[in-house]
Structures
1.
Amino acid sequence: MKADEVPQDKRDFKEGDKIHKLMYAVDTDGKYTGITSAGWEAENIATKQAWDAVDEELAETAEKVKRGELSPIAYFMQKNLMEVSLLAKYAGKWQWQVKRHFKPAVFKKLSGDMLAKYAAIFNITADELKNFGK
């Protein structure tokens, strides 16, 4: 691809023009050079659809937290695009323990230290974690 052919279709979601990716193209001298690209329409549409699906799932999880079906840990894990296995590693717990912490009754009994550890992982305060959905 030549440098003047690098796609520059503007994105119309999330961060907008702030996100660019580095692509390599051939310049006028025939040498490879790095060019920033805003992407192209097909890629932008697919990315928007993927983020819309993530946002929809996150909204469903938030509703489950508000209804008392899940603890806020499940919401913040999903918001941070984490899987149970990764969260368990960060928290220093077994996966089954983290899954147990998704239960509101178990969440209410977590120690202050454990809540602080989860809050630090999610980059929020322990109060934000405890009071989410209320």
2.
Amino acid sequence: MLNLNHKSLDVWKKGMDIVVEIYKLTRLFPKEELFILTSQLRRAAVSIPSNVAEGFARISEPETKRFLDIARASLVEIDTQIDVSLSLKYLREDQITNLSEIANHEFAMLTNLIKKYSK
């Protein structure tokens, strides 16, 4: 694969960690959720590091910021979908501890980067 700079960024690495966590957790979901909640969560998770990568491949700062905004929005989407999963009892609070820690760190990093590119 390509040896690109974004792969050394902590924000990209944490995004990849979120993908792994989401895939682990969604394996616990009922099979009837495969094409609904499982698919939504996985697509949103993959969107985070994908948009970070695409943002850092852009030349202009406004374009970079736009993709970072999309990555952060995908993270917020995951937050809601995890809440739905908890409400439906597909997951328990103790099962999302690691994801919560990674997601909070990722949200902070994305927010700081967005602020940097907003100037």
3.
Amino acid sequence: MMDMGTDRVTLKIPRPLYEKIKIVIEGSGFSSANEFVVYVLRDLLSVTGTAKKDLSSEEVEAIRKRLENLGYF
């Protein structure tokens, strides 16, 4: 298994979304926007499962709705 702490990539998000995340995490216990985004993405993946390679259209729609509710769309 890969050590998630040392093998990282950079993702770009719109600045307005980043600013919203900073507001959301104030006083939440998350130390950074990055920590929050990693938490949210892990949560999304746990719902859909990581063993599947292809997502059903229903799963894609559920993910899209969750991301939209988080301000990604």
4.
Amino acid sequence: MEFIYIVTGIVFVPAIAAGFIKNKMVKGGLSFLSLVGFFVLSVLLAAFVLPNFIGVHSVWLPFILCGAAFIVCMLFVWKPFSLKTRRIAALSAVSAAILLTAVFAGPVIYQNAIPEAPGEEINLLKYMPFGDSRASDNANTLAVTLNEESTLKLHDNLPRLDGATALYPLYAAFVRAAYPEGEYFPYYDLRGDGSDYQTIVSCSATIAAFENLIDGYADVIFLMGVSDKQREMAEAKGVELQLTPIGREAFVFFVNSRNASANLSTEDIQRIYSGEAANWRDVGGQGGKIKAYQRPDESGSQTMLKQIMGGAPLVPAPQEDIYDTMMGMYKRVADYKNFENSLGYSFLFYISGMINENKVKFLSIDGVAPTRENIANGAYPFANDFYAITAQRGGAYSNAARIENINKLIGWTLSPQGQYLVEATGYVPVES
């Protein structure tokens, strides 16, 4: 489509020049020289200025608008037809330009009008263990509640928790069951003055949560795994990590819901993210360049992708194709403009449970769909344990009561009640 408009625009200029050379069609006060100058100037302004206002980073819209303006001007300068005919032609040109602009540019303008903060992520306040007092109904929370009295009740020396965004609903449910009722805000900066402060139950996301653990600001973190670089960081600080599997989850690849692709093999994934396969046709699709998005190094999902690569190097992604948050990647794949080529990855519950908008489609891997049943029976190839992670330091913790509570909490997450919360939240228990 863009190619057609480019060619049309290129044809306009020689046509005007030919008319100017003949100089037989010049009537009225507007010369063809000024018309040529107007057309070229308007194309340049539209091509370089217009995208800054409406986000249209292509050339077809300027050519439509300038082409319509050229036709209208030509009709008023060159008069081989009757006034009625010229008016009909001018109205048709303007109407076509308006229609094409509305059809093609309207959705772009609408999409760019939606605010999207760089660090946009799921609103975790709705998962707060005991609700948010600032909400109209502070008892309203999406954190799962036990169907019986908890066998673990902690009253003081509470373990400080942190973790991945996708796992916050789960450990918020643990807190709801085992901690005294209170406001456990998931975010650090809630003072409004720009200063951070530690909360007992935080959600800093994978990278920051791990740093909080090894720096001694968190006692237990809940992550999908630990990267080699993170292990090296812990060793450099003399910290011994202990990973306790408490549930299982699927690492999923997804495309826009209108993408025709439904399955990729493990080898296909490796070929795409190593740069070997750049077109959907290379992996059994209908064609079109693959836009394979990535996450930052040491994020939970990027760590999983590296494991799947099996040692094959990842092709470096352009900075604009690397998303700090899983929400950012999801939004880009779900975007109507990317239905033909985009590919993203995340964890099943984050997309299906926390977002749940049905704008993307999960791909089967090696012919196996990422369902709970296939996660539990091991059929889905990218199903992995996730962990409650603690750190041991030589004499760094002197609070014996807190250490005891940490051990109680982790042990309880593996109990029938803890595993009930794992399953009720939307994950697969370790013993299923």
